[in-house]
Amino acid sequence: MAPSGLITTPLPVPSEETATNSQTDVKADQKVAVAKERVPRTTGLSGARVEETLTDDGNVVRTYKPGGRSGDGPLIIEANRVGQDSRTAAFPNEDLLEDTSDGKIPIIGLDGTRPMDQYARPWSGARGTRVAIVVGGLGLSQTGTQRTLKQLPGEVTLAFAASGNSLSRWMQEARRDGHEILLQVPFEPFDYPENDPGPHTLRTDLGEAKNLAELHRAMAKTTNYTGIVNFMGGRFLSDADALEPVIRDVASRGLVFLDDGSSAQSLSGTIAGAVEAPHAFADLQLDSDLSRESVLKKLDELERIARRNGTAIGVASAFDESVDAIREWCEEAGSRGIEIVGVASLADIPAKQ
């Protein structure tokens, strides 16, 4: 992900009257902030004329066309930012939220900013060995969630269960501590309903409309996340007809879909590639054998994968044994040249059109 930067274009300095009129037009038409020195600032896409068309299948197609610019004063174009300042990380960007009957859910901003960019944890940009660790199941247990937030460093990505409690509160605390976060959504496993992931599970027999309704209901539980990660879901992830609309919807909202790697029959990578959706796939389940020693061995294996491939993603649940092992491993990873990054920075993200 490219760091933010500034491109300056020197132009003749206008009179005070012309500059004032220009500022008014820019504020009204292009939604820009005006600096104290009366120099307008805008993102590369703001100022465009945005046309929205509602198609017969309910999708919204946005067309961006170049817009005119008022005035002839100096203009500073500011590139889209990646990540948030830690002082404001707990506050959602209202431009990236859509009001629905279930609440506010993510959407790509009119200037092209995606939630996966806005809420991503910044990283060094160095092309060294990078590892992302995702710890899920947050929000289900107050004690477990508190302990996880207290113990784990901000480099670790946290996944909050859509069926959890007080998610907005936990989200704010996690974001203030520097964590990138995901939303964990229940998907139908092969042995459903004997093995039930929880309320509002996305299922192969529900149909597209109901599954998207359940997805949006989950999305409205909190804000400031970069993507969706499945909870269970072997059957759903292997059913292309059920999965494709979900992948498309997640992508259309500027989010990453992280497959936790628990199902060998998952089609998420194939579908994401076909529809050009942001996608990531976990390399290892870190705590399938729940003991501190076993988790540490899995983390060492994850490191070997990262050194071989350049990057690796590991997932775990917020069990005490897992949290303790991950904290211990993270404390020493830097000394071995490992950078722990947010999962969004390792996702396969197609270029913006």
Could you describe the 3D structure shown?
There is one protein chain. The protein is of the alpha/beta class and 353 residues long. The chain has 2 domains: 6-78, no CATH class; 115-346, Alpha-Beta Barrel (TIM Barrel). The chain has helices spanning 16-30, 115-118, 142-151, 167-176, 208-219, 234-237, 240-252, 268-275, 292-309, 320-333, and strands at residues 6-9, 33-34, 40-42, 49-54, 60-65, 75-78, 97-100, 103-106, 129-138, 157-161, 181-187, 227-232, 256-259, 279-281, 284-285, 311-317, 338-340. α8 (268-275) links the parallel β13 (256-259) and β14 (279-281). The longest helix is centred in the last third of the chain and has 18 residues, at 292-309. The radius of gyration is 22 Å and the shape is globular. The two termini are 16 Å apart.
Descriptors:
nine-stranded parallel β-sheet, TIM Barrel, 31% helix, globular, 23% strand, single chain, alpha/beta, 353 residues, disordered N terminus, four-stranded mixed β-sheet
